[in-house]
Amino acid sequence: MDVSRRSKDGYVFMSVDSLEEYGLIAPAPSLQTMWSSFESFQNFDEVSRRSFAVDTVNALPSDSRATDARTPSDTETHSTRPVRKNAKNYQFLEEIGRGSSAVVMRAEVAGEEVAVKVFDIGKESFKSELKNKILSVVSTEEFLLKTIQHSSIIKFRELSTKGTHRYLEMELCKGGDLQADLARRGRYTEDMARALYRQILCALEVLHANKVVHNDIKLENLLLKTNGDKRVVKVVDFGLAHFTDLDSPHKYLVGTREYMSPELVRHCQKDDCTLAESVKPTYSMDMWSAGVVLFHMLGGYNPFHGVSTKHIFRSIVHVDLDLGAPAWQTFSASAKDLISKLLMKNPAERLTAVEALQHPWFGPSCTPQSTHQPALFRGIQRRRFKRVVWAIVALCLLRKKAVLNKMVF
């Protein structure tokens, strides 16, 4: 049974966020399978100690350091974990996000505001296979967030059920996502970007140390939360997370197209929705996406763009970054060096999260060459204008096509 949908270019995108964009969900391992993967070791405590033997604490501000992981008790296993309770009496205040399978609500419970991701698996439009995939996404996100705790990863509170609904309760981040924040600011200064980006890398370091690939790092999945005078980044949306211990390569495009790595998109078949060959997610794919995020944070625009999916993929695979352009001359050499090393076409040459945190850009001696960047702002405005023009052209073409269809039929 085929529950996927194609874009107008013939490509299919499998992303939890793409539930909003394309109405699709990628296959995810079941909760029992994931627990079985971890049981292949002698015990979970040993895995946690070995996996979290990384120095991520020193990379964060002292007041934002947190325990990297929650180690289950000796008596807690996949068969003795607490049974999910019926849903609390949430008082839903407003909608803060929506997808084809889930709605994220700001809610109040016991006098405290929280974010609740509501899944309705009882929709008549959902086929049984799609319902199973949604449940698998919920299980993946619950398992990962309960297992890994870090100051830059969204805090999981509880998963509850009521009828055909699943309620994933998390901490509330009132600062919105980086995409919206960048839309308001245009771009970040190097100092601001450095403080936020260090937290993103620390979260990726913890995930990769625990053999987890996020698979959908992008600005929309990075939320902001104010902690005193500091702004804290929270990585969210783990429904597509891949456990590298599992031998389950993807047969579909996974993630968001502008953030996909070249080693993934080059396998996409032009005349089919599947990949030409199965691709197993790797940590380097996350690092490529993180490189796109940093480029966008500093430049104010995405490095790989086009009028269609085909053009975007061609740009990702074949176009080299031009960080020597006048718009980038005002940035520090170390910032441009970090971007170029994260966006290496060859995944073997791409920096890891640990290596990126040790880059000189995070050193105290790194300063931008100039704070006045008129050429950059002119470039950003031109790119935004082009996007608006292309959107208007596309709308006109769609209307013309609709008129012709009416004339034919």
Please characterize this protein's 3D structure.
With 409 residues, this protein is α+β, with helices and mostly antiparallel strands. The protein has 2 domains: 13-170, Phosphorylase Kinase, domain 1, CATH 3.30.200.20; 178-182 and 210-386, Transferase(Phosphotransferase) domain 1 (Transferase(Phosphotransferase), domain 1), CATH 1.10.510.10. The chain is 36% helix and 14% strand. The strands form 4 sheets. A 5-stranded antiparallel sheet has the order 2-3-4-6-5, with helices on one face. The chain has a two-stranded parallel ribbon with strand order 1-11. It has a two-stranded antiparallel ribbon with strand order 7-10. Strand 8 (222-227) and strand 9 form a beta hairpin. Helix 6 (190-209) runs antiparallel to helix 8 and helix 8 (283-299) packs antiparallel against helix 10 (333-342). The protein is globular. Mean pLDDT is 75; it is low at 1-83 and 365-373.
Describe the secondary structure blueprint for this structure.
Elements: E1 13-14, H1 18-21, H2 31-38, H3 44-51, E2 91-98, E3 102-109, E4 112-120, H4 128-147, E5 156-162, E6 165-170, H5 178-185, H6 190-209, E7 212-213, E8 222-227, E9 230-235, E10 242-243, E11 253-254, H7 262-265, H8 283-299, H9 309-318, H10 333-342, H11 353-357, H12 374-408
Parallel strand pairs: 1-11
Antiparallel strand pairs: 2-3, 3-4, 4-6, 5-6, 7-10, 8-9
Helix pairs in contact: 6-8, 8-10
Give the overall average pLDDT.
75
* CATH superfamily caption of the largest domain: Transferase(Phosphotransferase) domain 1
Largest sheet: 5 strands, antiparallel
The CATH first-level class of the largest domain comes to Mainly Alpha
**What is the gyration radius calculated from CA atoms?**
22 Å
